[in-house]
Amino acid sequence: MSLKVFFLTFIILLVFSGAVNGRRFISDSGGLISDGVHSEIGRDLEILRLDRDFAGGEEESCEQSYGFLPCTKTALGNVFLILVYGYLMFLGATYLSSGSELLLEILGPGIIGGLFLPVLGALPDAMLILVSGISGSTAAAQSQVSVGMGLLAGSTVMLITIIWGTCCIVGKCDIQNSVAVDMKDTRGFSLTGSGVSTDIWTSHAATIMAASVTPFLVVQLPQLLHSTSGRHLSVLIGLIISLSLLVSYCVYQVFQPWIQSRRLAYVKHKHVISGVLKQLRMRALGRLCTDQGAPNIEVLEKLFKAIDEDADGYLSCTELKALVVGIHLEEINLHENDAIEKLMKDFDTSHDHQVEMSEFIAGVTKWLTEARGSEASSPEAGPDTMKYLDDLHEQTRREHHFLGDQSDESVETVENPRSTVIKAVLLLLLGTVIAAVFADPLVDAVNNFSSATSIPSFFISFIALPLATNSSEAVSAIIFASRKKLRSASLTFSELYGAVTMNNLLCLSVFLALVYIRGLTWDFSSEVLVILIVCVVVGVFASVRSTFPLWTSLLAFLLYPFSLVLIYVLDYKFGWS
């Protein structure tokens, strides 16, 4: 923290030195000394010289943000300012991220994890996009808004190309049976034998990311149809769709933990079913099913009597315990008592806390029917082999693995919740203020650097600004991926897909609102095409598979220079912009 304080002190001194230099130019101009002989002529010459100096100063002058922040027209000066303001935006993004994580520890997922966390993560980008076109004349806003589009496209492309590929490399583990084995990395940089695996929820996040490009397509329709009359209306329709999808996505994020817990409970239940049926098959003196596939009542009655140790005609919880002993419940993080409770709930239809023979036969019959009808049944599985029980048991174990159950993780309690909440709120306020104050100067510095070097401001914002607004997110994702576990990899890639989704919805909503309210022209066909290509390619690819060998990271890296070259060719060779 001392380094940050030193850096901020340096910025304050720089601001004051800029203000002092501005005042010194005026004070020096008044230092006229008369020689007593040519006073009038000297004064006239001195006034003429000052007029010339002031005229030249006006030609090279720049407009200071808020009237006091330093600015310059030189290329090197603006490089320095971009680094300074970019660092401050990075600092603001870091404070927002830290404050959000502290609130998440106190309040847990749901509203905080599903709504505030994604919104706050996209806040610095949204601020930069907002200030790029909110002030000045319409012509100036049309010129500056390319900075906002450059940031929007650059953030999206960087997150799912460079950062995605880097996380794949640092999180790589050995791939066995199409699954990356946690904490096992012995194959080096094998392009096919090493990689990462993610859970099913990460695939869902990738699907949502691919679908989030819908507003871009809507806004782009008039250009595709070569129409000029409906462009303003298409921006409004795209804005409405973008806001609707944003609200829907936030609602999904709020309820996603509940959906995940229900899905996990169902998979655990299926695992108990398949495990119990396997135990019954091993203990039965005969086949559980007849040649026609119907349950073998005689064998089931013998099984019931064998389990009913006290021969009272009912199975108690203690007697049912014998059926779950060899199921390896630790594989699905399920306690033995919970498994017995599931058995009793399925079999005890009379709700008298004991299972009679008819209930036992009906329950086993229902389970056998469910097991035969499951997707896990192989073509060679039939009543003779009962192989579908093994298939179902293995399938449920894999499903549980890819669902990313975290119920076995210890939850750390916060010692002083009140002080933690205060600290979180202060960090969020500080991050928001920094992002709001220094977004405008950063956009001005980018535009001034563009003017000084004749480099299009879009490419500067595409490459440089995402480094400032997404650095903290990228660093934390890479560090988390280096833990080399399915859970950490799933969380890492889910956060990347979620950040891109918020860019495509929240940041695009801000951008479209600017274009519509200020009456600007939507002329970003090449940028939209790049966003569509990258999001759809990565989103569809990540939605249909959950294991990514190392060669996939090379493809991700190649998408970044491909995006830059494509925009350049379309805009400056084919004249799309």
TrEMBL record:
- Its main subcellular localisation, reduced to a broad class, is membrane
> Residue limits of the EF-hand domain?
295-330, 335-370
Q: Which UniProt keywords apply?
A: Antiport, Calcium, Calcium transport, Cell membrane, Ion transport, Membrane, Metal-binding, Repeat, Signal, Sodium, Sodium transport, Stress response, Transmembrane, Transmembrane helix, Transport
Q: Matching PROSITE patterns, A to Z?
A: EF_HAND_1, EF_HAND_2
Q: Which InterPro entries match?
A: CaH_exchang, EF-hand-dom_pair, EF_Hand_1_Ca_BS, EF_hand_dom, NaCa_Exmemb, NCX_ion-bd_dom_sf
Q: Name one GO molecular function term.
A: metal ion binding
User: According to the lineage, what is the superkingdom?
Assistant: Eukaryota
Topologically, how does it sit relative to the membrane? Answer: Multi-pass membrane protein
The cross-references to CDD domains, in alphabetical order and at most eight, read: EFh
Its localization reads: Cell membrane
Ranges in a coiled coil: none
Q: Which residues form the signal peptide?
A: 1-22
GO biological process per UniProt: sodium ion transport
Q: Name one GO cellular component term.
A: plasma membrane
Give the stretches traversing the membrane: 75-95, 102-123, 143-170, 233-255, 420-439, 459-481, 493-518, 524-544, 551-570
Q: Which PANTHER family match?
A: SODIUM_CALCIUM EXCHANGER MEMBRANE REGION DOMAIN-CONTAINING PROTEIN, VACUOLAR CALCIUM ION TRANSPORTER
Q: Which family does it belong to?
A: Belongs to the Ca(2+):cation antiporter (CaCA) (TC 2.A.19) family.
Q: This chain belongs to which protein, by name?
A: EF-hand domain-containing protein
